[in-house]
Amino acid sequence: MSAEPGTVRPGGRTARVRAAVLRAAGDVLAEQGFDRLDLADVARRAEVGKTTVYRRWGSVTGLVADLLADMAEQSSPREETGSVLGDLRANASLVQRTLADPRQGALFRAVIAAAACDERTAGALRRFYEVRVAEWAPCVEQGVARGELPAGTDARAVVRAVSAPLYYGLLTSGSVPDAAAAERAARAAHAAAAAGVFVTE
Amino acid sequence: MSAEPGTVRPGGRTARVRAAVLRAAGDVLAEQGFDRLDLADVARRAEVGKTTVYRRWGSVTGLVADLLADMAEQSSPREETGSVLGDLRANASLVQRTLADPRQGALFRAVIAAAACDERTAGALRRFYEVRVAEWAPCVEQGVARGELPAGTDARAVVRAVSAPLYYGLLTSGSVPDAAAAERAARAAHAAAAAGVFVTE
């Protein structure tokens, strides 16, 4: 195939530019936080024209919203282990490893902090978690179908209950979750669900 | 008693100045966030000399650390209802009402966001939660002594488990917790504790 102007597949180049820009944006967020995020700096790091970045993302909040959309698309599919406790353990372990990873953990802390004072970032973050919770909810639904959890269990509430203590410790006390915390989070959510705490009318 | 200079009780005046300055600092945090906190602005709002504020608190992070220390001192004592589930419900309700209060909820979100990028604020926030968790832990210890929960239950872990879903929803999805969320949080922590999830060796 020739690579003359006009014959380059636009999807290919556009996707490469997006990947480079989002990678650079994530690096700045993880290293320096939301307040230091600057489109010109991101363009320089990504080796992409400043005009392209301004035209495509428009603002820092637009860039963070796209980063979160990309993270939701790229993130791991759910695991199915055959039991709801096993699946919740797999979910807890995934969340724990993400938060304990230096780059990813710092990135999430930066975005959550930004969401506290920026409505657009808050909306993008909310959508990110909706996608992730929806990805894992079928594990709980299958557990209900197999009779491991009571009928009427709110599957999304159970998935959120697994994440809650891992994020809470990190955000309020700076304690990076370890494997034991993940195991406790999965078992706690499972015990509460088994006791019918998440049954809705 | 005369009120000549030198005879005014220093505790009285100092305490009044501190209360006015911390009130003003909390107002700015709740209304505008950590980034807008400025010692000169706080002094003006509190009707206190700028020099006094600079000399006593030194920096914005010093001021926030003192605000958190004051919040820990001022916050409500634990309730004792006679059962561990009742006590956890009382704790969940207190946390829920705090986070749902417009001023307090905004203040906590601002301080948690600031803790993500400032080490001194992170330390002050961690100490705040240590004080609050230590205040409520005896409810769980009494529950263990009464045989309502298994021996070896980590009382602080149970108290933290009550708060976790309430904070998690607010911080990651902007969902202000309601009374139903508080009830679910208390019951989930209780069910997990009763199942032995928080027993440590």
From TrEMBL, chains A, B:
<dbReference type="InterPro" id="IPR009057">
    <property type="entry name" value="Homeodomain-like_sf"/>
</dbReference>
<keyword id="KW-0804">Transcription</keyword>
<dbReference type="Pfam" id="PF16859">
    <property type="entry name" value="TetR_C_11"/>
</dbReference>
<protein>
    <submittedName>
        <fullName>TetR family transcriptional regulator</fullName>
    </submittedName>
</protein>
<feature type="domain" description="HTH tetR-type">
    <location>
        <begin position="15"/>
        <end position="75"/>
    </location>
</feature>
<dbReference type="InterPro" id="IPR050109">
    <property type="entry name" value="HTH-type_TetR-like_transc_reg"/>
</dbReference>
<dbReference type="GO" id="GO:0000976">
    <property type="term" value="F:transcription cis-regulatory region binding"/>
</dbReference>
<keyword id="KW-0238">DNA-binding</keyword>
<dbReference type="InterPro" id="IPR036271">
    <property type="entry name" value="Tet_transcr_reg_TetR-rel_C_sf"/>
</dbReference>
<feature type="DNA-binding region" description="H-T-H motif">
    <location>
        <begin position="38"/>
        <end position="57"/>
    </location>
</feature>
<keyword id="KW-0805">Transcription regulation</keyword>
<dbReference type="InterPro" id="IPR011075">
    <property type="entry name" value="TetR_C"/>
</dbReference>
<dbReference type="GO" id="GO:0003700">
    <property type="term" value="F:DNA-binding transcription factor activity"/>
</dbReference>
<dbReference type="InterPro" id="IPR001647">
    <property type="entry name" value="HTH_TetR"/>
</dbReference>
<dbReference type="Pfam" id="PF00440">
    <property type="entry name" value="TetR_N"/>
</dbReference>
